[in-house]
Amino acid sequence: MSTSERRLTAAIWSNFNHNNDLCRYQVCAQGEVIYHSGLFRISLSINRYKALSRKVLISVFIFSQLVIGTVANAQPVVSASIKPLQLIAAAITTGIGGNNEPGLIIGPAQDPHHPSLRPSERRTLYAADILLWVGPQLEAALADVIDPTSSTVINAYELTQESGLSVSGTIDPHVWLSTQNARLIAETLTQKLVLLDVENRQPYENNLDDFLSSLDMLDVEINAALEALQQTPFAVYHNAFRYYEKQYGLTHTASYTDNEELQPGIRKVLEVRESLAANNVSCLLLEPSNNPEEISQLTGRDMTLMTIDILGFDYVANKTGYRDFMLGITQSVKECLQP
Questions:
Q1: Which of 37, 51, 131, 197 is deepest in the core (most CB within 10 A)?
Q2: Is the pLDDT of residue 269 over 90?
Q3: Where are the beta strands (DSSP E) in the chain?
Q4: What average pLDDT does the chain have?
Q5: Domain boundaries 228-337, corresponding CATH code
Q6: Is pLDDT above 80 for 129?
Q7: pLDDT value of position 262
């Protein structure tokens, strides 16, 4: 199926399904025919098409002509499940074609594990020619609508496992917190873009070269900022910083949970409190979903509680967005660790 046809199908499905026009005509019920092409899987029943009124069919035809005319000559549409992946993608697509900001599927105030996608976010998902997501290890709710076998789907978690850029221990889907992984994701995205958009091969590759060079400089800056603090003990509430720690020589002393959806029990809280005291820990890294007042009551000691948004919603998706995001994390970590 061509790019235009895939966007057409996704756009029609999104336009009608999510305002219930098709559901009103009972086409949304699970049926005998599976539409399986491009990035997505859609179940429809041929027998139910007869229930569509002439008015709806005419509307679909008119809408299809508009969509085909609009997208036939456009650059590939890139969508990312979460903000950090959008920041990486923007470094590659910025400045090429018209509206080239990668789409963002899971927006602010959404839980990547259990997103409740708005119609606009669903349209962003369905309209993608290339889709970046971490994988079911993070966005499990998207696994039912993303075709993992598609050549235009980039699974960031699988990339890191195959390349050896993973961390040991329990599954950690926060792969974007390593610039090494960001390099790999950007290189893979560029390869797929030049296959779909041969005319812009050189601009994509130039953007990639610029991005990789900026990451080299970024690593120098982060290492310089943290080198003197590598032996400083600190703790994390959610054990989500392992990629960042591994790359920049940090090691947390204690964590309350490996799964942010699970609250620590009394035994775990006492264990962490004992470790904090024994190692004279004065820095605890939190995330926006954590309540500092509640957590301060768990520590049993005066500590600096530093909230870090590892999803980076405050950063603009442009050529420097990912770099700015990682520098922001580093500044917060440094501020927390410094005596």
A1: 131
A2: yes
A3: 33-37, 40-44, 78-80, 103-104, 130-133, 153-155, 235-238, 254-257, 283-286, 304-307
A4: 83
A5: 3.40.50.1980
A6: yes
A7: 85
Every domain range in the chain assigned CATH 3.40.50.1980: 78-224, 228-337
List the one residue out of 61, 75, 59, 70 whose CA is nearest residue 21: 59
316: left (phi over 0), alpha (psi -120 to 50) or beta: beta
What gap in Å lies between CA 281 and CA 213, rounded to an integer? 36
**In this structure, are residues 117 and 106 in contact, taking their beta carbons and an 8 Å threshold?**
yes
Residues 222-237, mean pLDDT to the nearest whole number:
97
In degrees and rounded to multiples of 5, residue 24 shows phi and psi of -60, -30
Fold of the domain spanning 78-224:
Rossmann fold (3.40.50)
Angle, vertex CA 182, rays to CA 180 and CA 317, nearest 5: 150
pTM: 0.81
Amino acid at site 30: Q
3-class SS at 286? Answer: strand
Strand partners of residue 41: 36
pLDDT exceeding 70 applies to what percent of the chain? Answer: 78
Q: For tokens 């967005």, name the residue.
A: 321
DSSP state of 316: -
Q: Which candidate, 73, 70, 89, places its Cα nearest to that of 81?
A: 89
**pLDDT at position 54 over 60:** no
Residue owning tokens 């943290």 = 226
Torsion-angle region of residue 20: left (phi > 0), alpha (psi -120 to 50) or beta?
left
